[in-house]
Amino acid sequence: MASLSDEELRRGLRALGFCPGPISDSTRKLYLNKLRKLRATDRNRVQLLRSQGPGNKHPPQASLQRHRHDSHRQRTSSASPRHRTASFQRDSEESDEEDDDEYGYREETRYRQLADSGSSLKKGDAQRRCDSTARWNRFVERQLSRALLACTVALSVVLLWLVYVKTVGLGQPAEPGSNILLLPMDCKGKSDTYCRAEEKRMELQLLSELYSFLAKVAGDFECGNPSQFKSRCVSIPEVESYLATINKGYPSRLAEALQWIHQSDTDLGIWLVGKDPQRALVSLQGLSCVQSTSPALSLGCRLRLAVHAAILKSLIFILALAVMWGVLVLLRYRWRRLQEEEQAMYELVRRIIAAVREHYKDWDQGLEPIPYLPIPHVRDALLPPQNRRRMRCVWDKAVEFVASQESRIRTESHRVAGEDFLVWRWTQPAELSDSS
């Protein structure tokens, strides 16, 4: 029997009407003993039914009484009338005894059939309860798996959406350089066509160079490789120095261009920042620096930022998934431990009941001096020393179960060997204990 696999052991217990819990290294020996006892009980019941089969329907005492009645009837048929009257009375008494024996045999047979039917009903109830528990466990595991799968799919969709938004974007802003072409130009008193065209061309070139310069500086700070500037907001002297390297006439026209940007209601991609960045700029006298609102990012920089964002989101997703799986594994481990502790507690309660009942029988026969057992002594007798620390929680649950659910055992307080102990006393009479 020790070579049975876990599945064969589980099927054997269920076939005999017992619903087992999780089978592990710590509970396998317990379930093997349970299977051995159930098989022995079932084998004894089958042998009892065979011994009481159709061939042995009438007990030997009934046949003996029938033979005695026939022989006595033959003797009285040849006797005198007086002897016949006396023998008739004896025959009446013997027939009444035979009727009582037959009635007792029929009652015993009927009680045995009721007991067999009751045991089969108990086995059927245990099988149905076992199947119901197994179906509920499978349902809970299926629902948890579905919930975990749904969370995994949802987090995957969110991660893909974030990668798309970070890489491609929901929409590119309008190119502010096209708005520069719409700025009004002042020819400073000159009304000829050529002068107006030149003024307009120079102003547009200045704004275009300024926009490109500020966008490059902001892009360098976004990509993590800043140039010689300390901030993405460039001061006015630094802007004038840069424009002077391109065209010596640009610095003289910068104030007028900044005034147009300040008065314009259109987003030109250039942000005028005052001394207090939290407040809106009222006039150019409070202007501190200029900054680009649309950094110029290279393709490599965009890919690098997208990869960094994707890796960060992936790590968060993996961490969340690992936490969810860890919680699920811990819950399943906790459920399995609780089931194992419950099965161990029931087995310990059964052993406690057997020990207290056997002690009561010994006391009833005069083999024990006292009719009760101290609870610590029962614990020391049932639990080996190396398992008492590990089984302390199971023992406490078993003691609580016996105190609240077992009516045949009463918990009392007595002085044993000069020390007060909580003891267990068996309260069921010996006749009922033997019959049960």
> How are the strands of the biggest sheet laid out side by side?
1-3-2
The number of E-state strands comes to 6
* Structural Rg: 50 Å
The DSSP helix count reads: 12
Topology:
Elements: H1 6-15, H2 28-51, H3 60-77, H4 81-167, H5 177-180, H6 193-223, E1 234-235, H7 236-246, H8 250-263, E2 270-274, E3 287-292, H9 299-364, E4 372-374, H10 375-382, H11 392-405, E5 409-416, E6 419-426, H12 430-435
Antiparallel strand pairs: 1-3, 2-3, 4-6, 5-6
What does this structure look like?
This protein has 436 residues and is mainly α. The protein is built from 12 helices and 6 strands. The protein has helices spanning 6-15, 28-51, 60-77, 81-167, 177-180, 193-223, 236-246, 250-263, 299-364, 375-382, 392-405, 430-435, and strands spanning 234-235, 270-274, 287-292, 372-374, 409-416, 419-426. The strands form 2 sheets. A 3-stranded antiparallel beta sheet has the order 1-3-2. A 3-stranded antiparallel beta sheet has the order 4-6-5.
TL;DR of this structure?
The protein has 436 residues and is mainly alpha-helical. The chain has helices spanning 6-15, 28-51, 60-77, 81-167, 177-180, 193-223, 236-246, 250-263, 299-364, 375-382, 392-405, 430-435, and strands spanning 234-235, 270-274, 287-292, 372-374, 409-416, 419-426.
